[in-house]
Amino acid sequence: MAEVKEMNNQAVLDKLQFKFADAIFNVSEPFDLLTITTSKDKVIEIIQFLYDNEELKFRFLTDICGVHYPDQELPLGVVYHLHSLTNNIRVRIKVFLPESAPRIQTLTGVFLGANWMERETYDFFGIIFEGHPDLRRILNVDDMVAFPMRKEFPLEDPNRTDKNDDYFGR
Amino acid sequence: MSDIKIVEAPPGVEGAGFFATSLDKAVGLARSYSLWPLPFATSCCGIEFMATMGSHYDLARFGAERLSFSPRQADLLMVMGTIAKKMAPVLRQVYLQMAEPRWVMAVGACASSGGVFDTYSVLQGIDEIIPVDVYVPGCPPRPEGIIDGLTRIQELVQNESLRRRDSDEYKQLLAKYGIQ
Fold it and tell me: Quick check: helix, strand or coil at residue A9?
């Protein structure tokens, strides 16, 4: 019987740094969750490696989501959450993109389940996933023109006429 | 001894073997105690509605035993819960599929005004897309509130002129919502 080896964050990081030394930066472990940042050119390759590697086996895509930090040089982020069910370990991969050209390769080639997650990220943040089979809005109304989770978008319904700012202390 | 009360007859002329009243009143009476509600329940107000239909509160006592899950056979559209903007065309279509005369009740803060969800994705009250007859306040309203709303609807039904739906005023109201 094969010996069960305990997999930990450091072992995952070692493997990643061995293979993609200059593409991994900002490594941190908030709440023991290994978090790395990479570039948009390398991210699909890294996820494919994590998927294929016989020891790591990151074969479950928990989520893809977007994030907007307007003050950053590259304000729009895409965050991938991967889970290795066999090793009971997770990893979080962040990629940041410029607001002028928020384009990144699709992950649907690796995980088919990325399809709707990428549509959602496109819907709310306007991030364009190149090569996605059907990139259109999924949760918001089809005729919406804005990307509502970007910080410049006003949260409140613009059609309300009964709200006097004086009553709300602003 | 049963204490069941039968609805009183509308005012009219009574004599030996006959009773005369206006058609409006007779039809209104019949309609108001046999409303078929269509429950359009999307969230917690719908849970309160389930209690309202259950044995303890029992909306059937007011003649609304038979819920209609087909808009074509329903008289009363009860909208209970948050209506997202993406749901709005669906709700509107349900309303359009109902036959006249039809009434609409907005149950709870969300259906009436958007409630706490003052956000780009939520309809700020269903009266943005369809005309509403009765608003029931509450978040969610208690079953008593929903029953009160239904009795208000019954009052409207009883006192409605048979010609109201043909009136210019009513047509203008629908036109305001882009219906017809």
Answer: helix
CA nearest to B122 within chain A: A157
Architecture of domain A9-155: 2-Layer Sandwich (3.30)
Structure ipTM over 0.85, yes or no: no
Chain B: closest CA distance from residue A138 (Å): 10
Residue B86 to residue A139, Cβ atoms within 8 A? yes
Apex CA A32: angle with CA A27 and CA A35, to 5°?
A: 30
pLDDT in tens, A13-41: 999 999 998 899 899 999 999 999 999 99
> Cα(A160)–Cα(A152) distance, rounded to whole angstroms?
19
Cα distance from B2 to chain A (closest Cα, Å)? Answer: 51
Hey, what domains does chain B have and what are their CATH numbers?
Answer: 36-159+166-176 (3.40.50.12280)
Taking contacts as CB-CB distances below 8 angstroms, the residues of chain B near A156 are 118-120
What's the pTM?
Answer: 0.85
